[in-house]
Amino acid sequence: MVRFHNEPPTHLTLPGLEAIGVRHAFTTRHHGSFAWVSAPGGPFAPGGGPALAAVGITSAEVRYVRQVHGTTCLVTDRRAPGLVGTADALVTTDPGCALSVFTADCVALVLSDPECPVLALAHVGWRGAVGGLPGRLVEVLAARFGARPERIHAALGPSIGPCCYEVDGPVLEPLRAAFPEGWDRWTAPRSPGRWRLDLWRASTDQLVWSGVRPDAVLNPRLCTACRLDLFFSYRREGSGFRLAALARLRSPGGSRRRPESGSSGVG
For residue 13, what is the domain's CATH number? Predict the structure, then answer.
């Protein structure tokens, strides 16, 4: 289910994603952290490193956003600049550019319908889960690009697992209000006023409730907080360290349509 690359491993890939034509890489701490998207020159060094080599693209061809823990999705292609805008999800039908999000405990979520083909990459934290970002993104792919939920494949990148993610009332109450029929599937009491939150199950359930097949959701179950030998963790190490998830469509010229770059609010 997981293939690590280099020694020590600089990034990992999921054969299930490769099988549907999505080139991708989830970096480890051995790849190094990434600069802020607003930094001079952007987050990627000119050489790009092994993750960009795995995706088969240069740093100038990567698209990324200023992440704000929201539910906005931006559509992009090779004509857009590196920094596309402020959002937490990107969508493309253009194999000439790669999408990227940055995490340090949150879920990097990849979605693709290989028959369109269309690709989405999202950054999902607890606010994204409360906003229903995984399921709403399926709706965007279906409504705007003709994707069919039952054809969509999804993958969750390394992220904090239910073993380590503790939250309090200000997180639990919005989740309970947004998903009165589902929140208790994703939480477990830990101590007075504290709960364990399962972002993996929350993301998977929201995808499945939107029509994605359960067997089409890949989850390597790699916890960033448990595996500090491999990953950065905001909860364990604080801010300043970022992992990258990169993905692009493999087939050149396979897009049936190339919409203008723009935004699609899914919040």
Answer: 3.60.140.10
